[in-house]
Specification:
By secondary structure, the chain is mainly α. The protein has ten helices and no strands. α1 (about 1-10) packs antiparallel against α2 (about 20-45), α1 runs antiparallel to α4 and α5 runs antiparallel to α6 (about 165-195). It is globular. The protein starts with a helix and ends in a 14-residue tail after the last helix.
């Protein structure tokens, strides 16, 4: 979302009409930096020894994770530099261009962490990267539009989103959301058609005869059963999918339609809040849909 907001800012500030520096300094840049730094801090919770986080950059030649660890702090530093320029006068166009390229590289690195895992068919497809980029752009633009609406409500004399241009603002936001929805529906359809390339015979090494598993191979759970499976029921996953569908895509578009018909900025901001809640479900579902081949053996079967 922070990367998408930066790219959106770069587009809006590429022409002669610049967004007010006060808006960028008070609202936009602090929130973008909070999101970026929050993401960097949150990533340390994956580590058993956070004090060794610096060693994540050691494998940058072969690891997409290491490359992401390098680009994310660089992107934060560039954003801080743009924040400095914004306070001084205005952000130069060359810096907006560099920030946009860095945002794209960061999306690529993050997506490739999952796309490069060939044995997880749900991830090993270019649609993974496309989903990261399209959803990042749409959510980032949505964030920026919500901040512009908030600014317009707080400073009506300097309103940037008004009853006159709200159809265009909400319409373009809805277009990006529907574009990301189209891609997501295609991904869900593709994932439903996937069939495991392995089976119980290949997982256990038993080549002949009918094999039926009645135990997960041990008396209790293990690292494998905890780390490679979400431990939730099919019913739970199906409901998360509904939350992701309605919260991320459908309900925000309906709320944007109401915002246009009523010429009310508050509906656009409500739509953004709903969109954020849906994004959490969408991100959880992205991980839950990954069917790890090892679960053919380590199943929750008693």
């Amino acid at each position: 979302m922070a990367q998408g907001a930066i790219v959106s800012l770069a587009v809006l500030n590429s022409g002669p009409d610049q967004l007010p520096s006060e808006l960028l300094n008070i609202f936009v840049f602090p929130i973008i930096l909070a999101l970026l730094i929050g993401g960097l801090v949150a990533s340390t919770f994956h580590l058993g020894h956070p004090e060794r986080a610096w060693r994540a950059v050691m494998m940058w030649r072969t690891s997409w994770l290491s490359r992401e660890v390098l680009i994310l702090p660089a992107f934060i530093a560039l954003t801080v530099l743009a924040y400095y320029f914004s306070w001084e006068s205005r952000v130069p166009n060359w810096l907006w261009l560099v920030l946009s390229i860095a945002a794209l590289l960061l999306w690529i690195c993050t997506a490739m962490i999952y796309q490069c895992i060939r044995f997880i068919q749900e991830w090993a497809h270019p649609a993974t990267m496309a989903n990261f980029i399209v959803l990042g752009l749409s959510s980032g633009w949505f964030l920026l539009m919500a901040l512009l609406c908030l600014w317009s409500i707080v400073h009506p004399q300097q309103a940037l989103v008004t009853a006159t241009n709200i159809p265009g603002v909400a319409g373009f936001t809805a277009f990006l959301i529907l574009l990301s929805l189209t891609l997501k529906l295609w991904i869900w359809k593709r994932n439903r058609r996937l069939k495991p390339k392995s089976n119980l015979q290949s997982a256990t090494g038993i080549k002949t005869g009918f094999v039926r598993q009645i135990s997960m191979g041990m008396m209790g759970g293990s690292f494998n059963t905890r780390e490679f499976f979400h431990q939730q029921s099919v019913f739970f996953v199906a409901n998360i999918r509904k939350i992701a569908f309605f919260g991320t895509y459908l309900v925000p578009v309906l709320l944007l339609t109401i915002a246009v018909s009523n010429a009310d900025l508050s509906w656009l901001m409500i739509a953004f809040v709903v969109h954020c809640a849906g994004l959490i479900a969408e991100r959880w579902l992205f991980f839950a849909e990954a069917n790890h081949p090892q679960n053919l053996y380590y199943q929750r079967i008693a």
